[in-house]
Amino acid sequence: MSKNNEGRYLYSVLNRGIDAEFAETGVNSARVYTVIYRDLTAVVHACSDSPGLAAGEGEAMEWILEHIRVVDLMTEKFGTVVPFTFGTIIKGDDEVVSEWLRENYAALKAEISRFEGRAEYSIQIFYEQELLSGEIFKMNPGLQELKGKLTGIPRGIAYLFERQLEHKIAEEIEALISGLAAGYEARIRDCSDSVLSEEKKPGVPEEYEQKKLFVFLACLVQDGKVPELGELLDRINEREGICVRFIGPFAPFSFVRLKGI
Amino acid sequence: MLPQRDTCTLVDLLDRLLEKGLVLRADLVITVAGVPLIGLNLVATLAEMETMLKYGIFEGLDKTTREWALEHKQGIPFLEGEKPLDKAYGSYRFDRGKKTAWKYGYIYVTDHRIFAWDKGLRCFLFEFRPEEIKAVKVEKRLYEKKERDELCFLFQDETSLFLHVEKIRDFKKSIEMVSSSSEV
Question: ipTM of the assembly?
């Protein structure tokens, strides 16, 4: 293949000079190897400059899992990495990759040093509406009184009172969970280097589908602080009606600030 | 509480991989007809991916790319003349006196056998021939306190294998096709 129609699919940048070729394959079963500039290494595979689209959903998923597997493997073998977003192909060959590392050496070194000894975790905290409604109802005499009025009155009026009751409970839940969210987030921040609020609804396993998400954070956490964070989440999880999902570690995808270098 | 990776959903991964991470400047990156590479950078959720599939965004395979990919692809180790009939991404668990944990992988049904192959490690996760199956049925079983359909294999040696895949009944049909042809 001539130099003109080559590309290099990029997985991650390592904070060491590692000359290696890996037995494990990458996206679309490609051979994964490294390109070095001084003490920085790009993990790549060689591909054509007119890469194809995935042949279907199954293949697309396979590629995504392969990408994350390579990023995870590099983290496992060599420590901190700066991960590339999925599907990044640089035009050109190994020399172009090495040149890109050279040009952005200082920026990449600075970025990678922020991640040294740290990993990204996702924290999702859910509440169970029914349990919290019951709790609020028990604690609030005003609501109990409103419910008491429902018996022995005409159906139309009872209906209006019921709506009023539901509305009040919803308001109370809202107030309760905003207070809880602020408290939880502050305590999670204390255990983390950096915390970002996620905007998208996460994909959750079936057991969480009926629950309502009210805290969704990406956290950059020092390796030594993970047990402390775990204990904090245990305490949060113990509260009736609250349930925590703690996943990771991931390479620090959410905390990469370098864009368009 | 320990952080979990094995309960990660595809969307957990997609959100990270497709929208986050290091991004190169546009003049360095290859794009396909204006779509950053594999058409997936634009995809945020599975639902959107389904929309893209519907509109054929993944289907514009360039011939030379396909040839190139085929040439470089280290394939699944099919036997000579072996015909793949079905493939599904799913989870499986063995019960050989002692229950093992649920593991994930691509499961293949061919006219010769049923197997799961780890592409990264290039090894079989499991492999068996239709003759080894004593019975196969879809059963309602509990997973994470919820009921779901699982495909249960009972083997001649009385060990069991449980599979969970998305289109479980279609997958079972493929397996029955292999089993019936082996009986003949």
Answer: 0.79
Burial group, residue B98, by CB count within 10 angstroms (0-12, 13-18, 19+)? exposed
Q: Please classify residue A258 by burial: count the beta carbons closer than 10 Å to its beta carbon, then call 0-12 exposed, 13-18 middle and 19+ buried.
A: middle
CB nearest to B119's CB, from A7, A29, A50:
A29
Residues on chain B touching A73 (C-beta within 8 angstroms): 120
Q: Which CATH number fits domain B84-183: 1.20.1050.10, 2.30.29.30, 3.30.360.10, 3.40.640.10?
A: 2.30.29.30
H or E segment at A14? strand A6-14
pLDDT at B52 over 50: no
Question: B24 and A10: CB-CB below 8 Å?
Answer: yes
Q: Identify which of B4, B16, B38 has the shortest CB distance to residue A53.
A: B38
Say which residue the tokens 């991989």 belong to: B17
Q: Per-residue pLDDT averaged across A8-29, rounded? A: 89
At residue A47 the predicted structure's pLDDT band, cuts being 50, 70 and 90, is confident
Domain count for chain A, please give it.
2
